[in-house]
């Protein structure tokens, strides 16, 4: 299947070619025709599947069909996404795919001065990509009107729920025109998300792709059993390998991220931390430095790293094993993107063995253990993992409502379209 056969207009085909895309990803192949028809869409997919292009390309095509926009621009498409990083990335994608169609796109997010955003809004825009809080704020101040929105996208809906944005999203829905096309994307479909989707969508076509099975198959995964107190030394030891050009290291806490970044920096390894306590500018700068390989190691918490798209990221290191198995899959999905190779290394101390077991159950495979390394696990006595933190995998949370069975494994290995 080629992009041409999806009936995409020439200026967008040209831009896609410039991006270096040769064939559409499964979510693009399935979603683009549905969206071009004007049908609502319920997409079960996460970042890393090519989801952004799956909605940005047809939106650009639909909006560019009405040439009157050149005279007076109004917000005709709104994309709402949970984090600033995602908003920026989606905005960049709209600009890249739309570079030959002449539509304007603005990104709206909190944590920075609003002046730049409001002045670009006042200049007239066709597409707004926003995080919910700042969007509502600017609406309340009268800078944004959503009355003319034709296509609405709710991205990463399950994250919205996790991050407590659902109330804001509901407020937004109320002011959107009733007559509109809506696209709804979520990596998982817990009951609350299904309920929300039902209030937003009208007779949606359903598309679901699972990158996880692919991800898990193409990414090399290893685990090092080690003591909690040896993890810093082990990390420094692993990073001595100059073949590791860049590595994204995950810690469970913000404090932990800062500490690890500090410790490895002292060993002359260029590292920065990224987490929710850092200002937007600091986060963006750390991300840019990492993307440009000015820093070699980015230490991140899960929320901060959610959705960051770094081309050619070969290594993900789990300094701590996540207590939710799905988080592991999301983390390692930062590498091995769009078919590139990737390696995921996890450090497991005695208290984390249970989490590792959960992960292996979820991905249906044993992660190879690196034996004979310099910092072996000595303290086999499991320091009791805090019970309340051990979150058992909830299978109903890890499959789309379309799957119709209770086995997460099936969802993780399937790609499905239903109309
Ligand atoms: P996304 O899921 O939208 O975050 O996309 C993940 C990555 O895949 C991004 O780096 C995109 O640039 C890339 N990508 C999207 N579509 C394609 C495609 N058809 N071929 C190759 N790479 C793609």
Question: Would you write up a description of this structure?
Answer:
The protein has 419 residues and is of the alpha/beta class. It has two domains: 4-209, Rossmann fold (3-Layer(aba) Sandwich), CATH 3.40.50; 213-412, 3-Layer(aba) Sandwich (Rossmann fold). The protein has helices spanning 10-18, 26-36, 51-64, 84-97, 115-122, 132-140, 157-162, 166-175, 191-200, 211-218, 231-239, 254-266, 280-291, 302-305, 325-332, 353-363, 408-412, and strands at 41-44, 77-80, 105-108, 127-130, 151-154, 181-186, 205-208, 219-225, 247-250, 271-274, 297-300, 315-318, 342-348, 416-418. It has an eight-stranded mixed sheet with strand order 3-4-2-5-6-1-7-14, sandwiched between helices. Strands 8-13-12-9-11-10 form a six-stranded parallel sheet. Helix 5 (115-122) links the parallel strand 3 (105-108) and strand 4. The longest helix has 14 residues, at 51-64. Bound molecules: adenosine monophosphate (AMP). Adenosine monophosphate is lined by residues 21, 24-25, 28, 47-53, 309, 311, 337-338.
| Strand order within the widest beta sheet | 3-4-2-5-6-1-7-14
What can be said about the biggest beta sheet?
8 strands, mixed
Mean pLDDT: 85
Named once each, the bound ligands are:
adenosine monophosphate
The third-level CATH topology of the largest domain is Rossmann fold
CATH class of the largest domain: Alpha Beta
Beta strands, count? 14
Helix content: 25-40%
CATH architecture of the largest domain: 3-Layer(aba) Sandwich
